[in-house]
Every structure is written in structure tokens, then in C-alpha cells.
């Protein structure tokens, strides 16, 4: 209890200390019925408990007067728009009777909000692309801290927040909320994290604290990963077509090689036929010579047979002359076939190498595609 003789000293002390109290304070003196003196700090000065205003007969001040003892009361936000703690202490005369009440009114502020200006500037600058830290009461933005790299001018301290915001949902659900917003809301894609702040016994949400973090890098990574994945799919599809073409070419080259081998076999057969023609020519020539000899022996009777023998020898000579030509052509065919066969083997080997390389590239692209998908997952988590 306070002696009425010391009231003036208390007033003088309050005048000095009002602006030194963290969070602010309102000092009051009443005679039990009416407030007779008031001192508020600059930081906290609600338009309540004015000098000349009647004391609430059911309030803590009247209770302290009636019971002649210190009384403490917590006032809910619904009454004055802010939670208050009021400590009322009787002022007594020399006989110990209560002749007035000295009251101290403190705003009840969550510790996070109370220390916001101390930690928020540091926290906002800790993110690579910057961040915006904010705190709200149940209706409006109470504190805003923009970073150097990232600011949101549309969010202003003292403005009411909308029903579709993260903080409004936190107050409704009493649970933390994490939201993603595209560039249409704040100019860049962002991640919004908001947590509820409770009263002393954690029975009531009294405020919220949140961060808005730009996701520019993550969004770019998602775009890069998507483009990379699409490009790899197109490349993979093209390589599959090339591999399919290579397989078909390989098959055709194999058939060509088989055909060349068949031609080579035919050339051998032609050579055999040429040898046979040479033998027939030699035999025909011999028969023609024998026929000429017999025709000479026969004299005049064998003249006609001699003409035939001469024609046979002539035909034999012509047949024999054809054999070198056939051999020359056959040799040329064999040379071209051998040359084509070598090229076919080389082409066949190249196609096989191409098919093997295509398989290796396809396997590598599958690995890169998997990496692109993993990159996309990581970007979504940022």
C-alpha cells in the first residue's frame, strides 16, 4: 500500500520513468470514483482511463479500494483492442484506510513481438535473396522488417490483413501455415511461413509471426530442370530413331554382304565355264584339224567336208579368243566385288560402332534425365 503523503513523490517518479518502460505504460491515480491523474508513455497511450472519467465499479481499481489490498487483473483484447495487465494498489491515510488507488497499466505483448525490432533486421538479411519478416496482432500488421535485397511495399505496418492471407489462416486454425504464392501476388514467386503466437498459458492465439522469402532461384531451377528434361526427351527420342535406323542399315549391309558373297561365287562359276569353253575350243580346233586332214585325203570328194572343217577351226579360234575377254571381265568383277566387300565390312563395322555409341549415349541421357528430375525435386523444396 502507498501512503497518501508519498503520492507526489510517486507522481514525480512516474513522470520521469514513463518513457523508460519497455513496451510502454499508463500510470493512474483515482479517488475511488474518478480518475484524478494520468501519465502515459509515448510508446503506449490508448484513449482510455482519462482524467475525470468514472472508475468502473466492477473493475480492478474499485476492487483494490473496497478490499484495501493490491489487486491484479488481466483485461482481454476484446475490451480495449489490446490485452492489458492492470496492477491497482490502494493509497491509504495515516489510519490505514483506503482513500484512493494508484494503478499501473501494461500492455501484454508476446515476447516475439516485444523483441521483434532486435532480431528481425538480422533475420531478414540472413537469406541469400533477402526476406520480409512480419508480425501481426489479431487484426493488423504490427511489425514489418524488409531486407535490403527484397521488399514488399504493399505490406504496411498498421494496415489490416485480408482474410485470404497466411496470418488470417493461422489465427483461425491456431497452427503454423506454409504457403507458396506465384509472381502475381508480390512480383516474384515467394514462400510464406507463418506461426501462431500464444498467450501465457497457450490457450489463445494473440499474434502471429511470419517470413516471406523469394523463391527466384528455386523457380529458375525448376524452369531449367523442366527445359533440360524436355530437351533430353527429344534428344533421347532422336537417338532412338538413329539407333533404329542403324539397326536397319546394319541389316541391309548384312544382306548386301551376303549378296556380294553370292556374286563372288558366281564369278568362280563363270571362271569354271570359261575353262570349260577353252577346253571345248581346243578340242574343236583339234577336230577341225583332223577333219581337214581327212578332207585332203579324200580329194575332190572331201572338198565340202574341208570347208566345214575350216569353219570349225575358225569357230574354235573365235571361241578361244572370247575366253580372255570373259576372264578379263570376270577379274574386273572379282576386283569390284572384293572392293565392295571390303567397304561393306567397314560400313558394317561402323554401323555396329554407331549402334553401340547410341546405346551408350541413351544410357547417359537416362542418367542426366534422372538428375534433372532430382534437380526439380530439390528446387521444389527450396
Automatic annotation (TrEMBL):
SUPFAM superfamilies in UniProt: Methyl-accepting chemotaxis protein (MCP) signaling domain
Domain of life the protein comes from: Bacteria
GO annotation, biological process: signal transduction
Keyword annotations from UniProtKB, A to Z: Transducer
Entry GO terms, CC: membrane
SMART domains: MA
Pfam families: MCPsignal
Domain called Methyl-accepting transducer: residue spans: 238-382
Protein name: Methyl-accepting chemotaxis sensory transducer
